[in-house]
Design a protein that fits this description.
The protein has about 220 residues and is mainly alpha-helical. The chain is built from eleven helices and no strands. About 65% of the residues lie in helices and about 0% in strands.
């Protein structure tokens, strides 16, 4: 009789253990996968831990997607810059005559983007107020900053930080923050981690709007992602 009781007790323990293991396995199987932003690292710089990686929908998504493919620029970065620059309002004109979604100045960024596209002169006010044209030219300018003015910066995250700062205040001003000699400036940047670069800009960039802009775009990127 005692032997039967022991057998029954052992069977009950095994049965309960199997149920617990099965439930634990089910929890693991049902847990959503965690994806990280394209520029995330342990410090969560340009992305965030999230169940999904679906970007916020905007009326200009098709233009953003086309410009992203055309110039090899991250869609989320384009959206983050638009969010900070204009709040997705294509008619906005700043006091310094920056126009449209990406707040492009015709005589500077607009002229550079025109040159990249093989055009002479600069965009008109009507062109800059057109969402498709504005996004195309703004994204072209981002590509110019990354591939020309900031060429030589090795770390992708640092390059994105540098591109954001250069977008608002110019690549020359950013590099001069590190050294008057471009080559030495790039070398100094490459010796820094992305976090160190970020903090250096926050503490040393001569234009107060530059570190604030970097902070805003980084947060917008995080929120969109």
């Amino acid at each position: 009789m005692r032997l039967k009781f022991i057998h029954a007790h052992v069977f009950l323990v095994l049965l309960l253990t199997g149920c617990v293991n099965q439930e634990a396995q089910q929890v693991r199987n049902d847990k959503p996968s965690i994806s990280r932003g394209i520029f995330s690292n342990n410090n969560d710089i340009f992305g965030s831990r999230s169940v999904t990686n679906k970007n916020k929908i905007t009326p200009f998504d098709s233009f953003i997607e086309q410009a992203s493919r055309r110039y090899g620029v991250d869609e989320t970065l384009i959206k983050a810059i638009i969010q900070v620059e204009s709040g997705f309002r294509p008619e906005v004109i700043s006091k310094s005559n920056a126009v449209g979604l990406m707040q492009i100045k015709a005589a500077t960024a607009g002229r550079d983007a025109y040159r990249l596209k093989g055009k002479s002169g600069q965009p008109t006010l009507r062109e800059l107020k057109d969402p498709a044209t504005n996004i195309d030219l703004g994204t072209a300018y981002i590509s110019i900053l990354k591939k020309q003015h900031l060429e030589g910066i090795n770390n992708p995250e640092t390059l994105y930080y540098a591109t954001i700062v250069a977008y608002v205040n110019g690549a020359g001003a950013l590099l001069r923050t590190f050294d008057l000699n471009r080559t030495l400036a790039i070398n100094k940047i490459n010796r820094l981690t992305p976090d160190e670069f970020y903090q250096y800009v926050q503490n040393n960039h001569p234009a107060p709007q530059a570190p604030r802009y970097l902070w805003k775009v980084r947060n917008a990127y995080h929120a969109i992602n």
